User: Fold this.
Amino acid sequence: MPPLLEVIDLHTEFRTGAGLVRAVDGISYTVDPGETVAIVGESGSGKSVSALSLLRLIPDPPGRVTQGRVIFAGRDLMQLSEEQMRNVRGGDIGMVFQEPMTSLNPVLTIGRQITETIEQHRGHDPVAAQRRAIELLGLVGIADSERRLKQYPHQLSGGMRQRIMIAIALACDPKLIIADEPTTALDVTIQAQILELMQSLTRRLGVALIIITHNLGVVARYASRVNVMYAGRIVESGSAAALYHDPHHPYTLALLRSVPRLDRPRQARLDPIEGSPPDLTRLDRGCSFRPRCRFAIARCAEAPPPLEAAGAPGQFAACYRSNELAAVAGEAA
Amino acid sequence: MTAIAGDVASHAAGKPVGNTAGNQGPLLQVRGLRMHFPVTEGMIARRHVGDVKAVDGVDLVIGRGETLGLVGESGCGKTTMGRCILRLETPTAGEILYDGVDIAKLGRRDLVALRRRIQVIFQDPYSSLNPRMKVGSIIGEPMRVHGVEPDAGRRSARVAELLSLCGLNPNFADRYPHEMSGGQRQRVGIARALALNPEFIVCDEAVSALDVSIQAQIINLLEDLRDKFNLTYLFIAHDLSVVRHLCQRVAVMYLGRVVELAACDELFDNPLHPYTRALLAAVPIPDPVVEATRAFQPVAGEVPSPINPPPGCVFHPRCTLAVAECRRTRPQLRELRPNHWVACDVVQ
Assistant:
């Protein structure tokens, strides 16, 4: 079976006052039908820009997708007309963003925002759209749906608003949902509710999910495959199990070692990644993680290492030392 | 630790605690603290229609050199607690004994002196630093205001010392906040908090806004400074794994009240209150194999409004263990295990 989504060598640039920023610098990955894939990285790693790029939502100027193909269900999204693209967004691809207060329209009722999507994309009449909206609210666990449909976003809690966003994302039976930090603004217990809801719904309805997050725990609990991004590139990808237990890129390894874990004895001291994330306007030819890497060698300064098979089947890492990392890191620890 | 725990015990049991002015006894004792914010309606004749009970009867003790974690979700009152202790708010009721003196009732002049001893590190290093001031002035400002180092030359020497103490190059004094990364800015915030040699620092979500790779750096820095200057921290946070790493004792708040209080290891190894358990279960472990073996059912419902909290136990609408009695009586903190206090009448 071909993948549902295939991103091939995607590049996105921003022209800023400080210079050219290659926010996404040649990333490729696939998502199979019904699969949950995580894109994990820190702020500025390009994880959100990569998602906006494939939806063609990058504001131009200052940004521009300069290269790459995005094959979704057999079509290259980069070749579609703006009109066709509008039908894809909110239709076959649903979106859930971080801050539901800003992604919902404050002057429209919840009901109108859901029915609008259905009428636009599916051509339903208002009565049918209303019926579908009530059904959707039930699906996302909102009781008393008739009353809720008449309310405005500010009358709902953060968790409730995110449920509405999920209802809108699901409204037109999408094949894929892209969720960008869907629970970062929410409290721990509400975060758990929303993520469980997204997982059970995408499984039940067979919808693929790209979840963009900085939270390594969320990735471990919900994703089957993971892409780790750093400075605009995917530095490691593979199954979640392989990546967490046998990381082959120093950044993945360092990230996993730097977080305190509730399931392990307390450490005397945390093991941070020294230094700061790079300034994307001043990247040189070499590996962008090199200045913070404990295992860097002379070769790392020459050219960025390509993403190559390393470790378990289906696991890839962009590091010249990926296959000796376990041994070297073992000595260091 | 035992002395502190003993104080907690006698305190929570309602026994009188002697005057601890001087160098013995806990550094901070909070008794029956309430902070209610009035809710009004109407444009001209403002009618008082209710109160947001942000903090609703909290007792806490923090020992000298201790780090107490204060955890809970947004709206639980943890930040308001910190603001009351800093006297950025004047509490509605209750006592805040700092080194034996009730600071809840201090006047302006005495507060100035207090603020040399109690400092704060805020969450957001973007909004808590003045964008028009250079880093050197930001860190030097508290010294200038308090007249600690009137001589400009000696002040800038002290700024350089504070910068390197916080892991920054002293030439950062000439930069503006926008020229720095989030982690560097938070180091500036910490240097500013240290400028007056305080003994007590309220860390309000001090690492929450930082990236994972930077978070660990700042946590290590806070630990180093604590050891070096024998600092006492009130560490307010929602990230339980960070709190477990950094704190000696932890208080869990829910809707303005402390629902559980214990030594850190005890709390995380044997959580007793149903809310604490729900909170711990909701934290995903960064390990897919561990996650696959965890049976997980998220706690239902949302935090009720602090304007009109539920009667009895405030957690009962979301609690799986709730019985009829929970709707009627507000549970008091009980010592269910040695030095482990739980405000729940159902768990044993």
Chain B touches chain A at residues 73-74, 181-184, 211-217, 219-220, 223, 238, 240-242, 244-245, 264-265, 268, 278-291, 296, 298-300, 302-303 (CB under 8 Å).
